[in-house]
């Protein structure tokens, strides 16, 4: 059974970060977990004179902040997100943001890292620029990314009843499937597995096309369905309803389209695919999905 006991949430004081923190708090309540909130700056001012920098909306820090000021802003952020009652641990640290977050997640042995997307980094960027992107790719634990379109104030407990789980049969996506099944079971919900066939023409061959081409296309689709069905049968003892879907075309487009047209609470997918470390099939697709999704996305490493 998947249980989150240590949840880490980096914030940059943007509105999106507040949404992510609210979800982290709701999950902490659901799992009775310890919540740790972290903000990272390049360097702190050593003297005690206040130099609080968080006044504008452009995310710029014109001078080094004082640690006490940052901690005070963090306390206000936890209150705004409804997380103060959980007595979260507040960490104001200095260094390279991505590296500090990853190091802290490892030190805490975090079970889950929750981050907002499209924060102060600007349009089509992630929390603190590309930080969340790097976190998704290298975090030692699953990462839940929360987009701006998600409700700022979730219910007291977050329950994911309708889960979409893209599968490319890589170790990472199979691990994601285990997470999806367990989360779906806990919510008495349903998991839809989706496999995208990227190397077949999206358009159905017309009647004038060679019958062999049409036959091959159908064979590929049938084989994908058989693989998904075998995977669902193998895990039938989890007592979670499973639906199976096959799409033709780019995987990330199929994932986003399915999530937007069906009642989806959460997308669960592998952070790595079957390719190399940075050019993997589902790694690349994961980045596209995290950037464009209108639903929370849980990325899982094998």
What does this structure look like?
This protein has 302 residues and is an alpha/beta fold. It folds into 2 domains: 6-146, 3-Layer(aba) Sandwich (Rossmann fold); 162-300, HUPs (Rossmann fold, 3-Layer(aba) Sandwich), CATH 3.40.50.620. The protein contains 8 helices and 10 strands. It has helices at 15-31, 67-80, 97-108, 131-138, 171-186, 211-234, 251-261, 281-292, and strands spanning 6-10, 34-41, 89-94, 112-116, 143-146, 162-166, 190-197, 241-248, 266-270, 297-300. A 10-stranded mixed β-sheet has the order 3-2-1-4-5-10-9-6-7-8, sandwiched between helices. Helix 3 (97-108) packs parallel to helix 4 and helix 7 runs parallel beside helix 8. It is elongated and about 75 Å long. The two termini are 16 Å apart.
Number of strands: 10
End-to-end separation in angstroms reads: 16 Å
Task: Write down the secondary-structure element order.
Answer: EHEHEHEHEEHEHEHEHE
Major sheet details: 10 strands, mixed
Radius of gyration: 21 Å
- Average per-residue pLDDT, rounded, comes to 83
Across the major sheet, the strand order is: 3-2-1-4-5-10-9-6-7-8
TL;DR?
The chain is an alpha/beta fold and about 300 residues long. It has helices at about 15-30, 65-80, 95-110, 130-140, 170-185, 210-235, 250-260, 280-290, and strands at about 5-10, 35-40, 90-95, 110-115, 145, 160-165, 190-195, 240-250, 265-270, 295-300.
Secondary-structure topology with pairs:
Layout lengths: L5 E5 L4 H17 L2 E8 L25 H14 L8 E6 L2 H12 L3 E5 L14 H8 L4 E4 L15 E5 L4 H16 L3 E8 L13 H24 L6 E8 L2 H11 L4 E5 L10 H12 L4 E4 L2
Parallel strand pairs: 1-2, 1-4, 2-3, 4-5, 6-7, 6-9, 7-8, 9-10
Antiparallel strand pairs: 5-10
Helix pairs in contact: 3-4, 7-8
């Amino acid at each position: 059974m998947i249980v989150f006991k240590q949840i880490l949430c980096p914030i940059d004081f943007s509105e999106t970060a507040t949404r992510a923190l609210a979800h982290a708090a709701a999950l902490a309540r659901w799992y009775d977990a310890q919540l740790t909130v972290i903000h990272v700056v390049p360097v702190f001012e050593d003297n005690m004179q206040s130099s609080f920098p968080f006044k504008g909306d452009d995310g710029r820090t014109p001078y080094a902040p004082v640690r006490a000021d940052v901690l005070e802003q963090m306390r206000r952020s936890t209150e705004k997100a409804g997380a103060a009652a959980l007595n979260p641990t507040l960490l104001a640290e200095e260094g390279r943001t991505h590296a500090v977050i990853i190091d802290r997640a490892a030190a805490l042995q975090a079970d889950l890292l929750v981050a907002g997307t499209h924060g102060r980094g600007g349009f089509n960027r992630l929390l603190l620029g590309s930080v969340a992107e790097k976190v998704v790719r290298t975090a030692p634990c699953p990462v839940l990314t929360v987009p701006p379109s998600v409700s700022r104030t979730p219910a007291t407990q977050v329950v994911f009843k309708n889960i979409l789980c893209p599968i490319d049969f890589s170790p990472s996506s199979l691990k994601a499937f285990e997470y999806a099944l367990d989360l779906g079971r806990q919510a008495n919900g349903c998991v839809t597995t989706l496999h995208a066939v990227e190397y077949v023409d999206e358009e159905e061959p017309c009647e004038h096309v060679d019958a062999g081409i049409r036959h091959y296309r159908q064979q590929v689709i049938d084989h994908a369905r058989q693989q998904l069905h075998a995977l669902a049968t193998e895990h039938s003892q989890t007592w979670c309803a499973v639906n199976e879907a096959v799409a033709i075309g780019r995987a990330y487009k199929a994932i986003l389209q399915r999530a937007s047209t069906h009642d989806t609470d959460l997308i669960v997918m592998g952070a790595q695919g079957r390719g190399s470390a940075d050019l993997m099939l589902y790694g690349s697709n994961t980045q596209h999905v995290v950037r464009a999704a209108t639903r929370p996305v849980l990325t899982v490493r094998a």
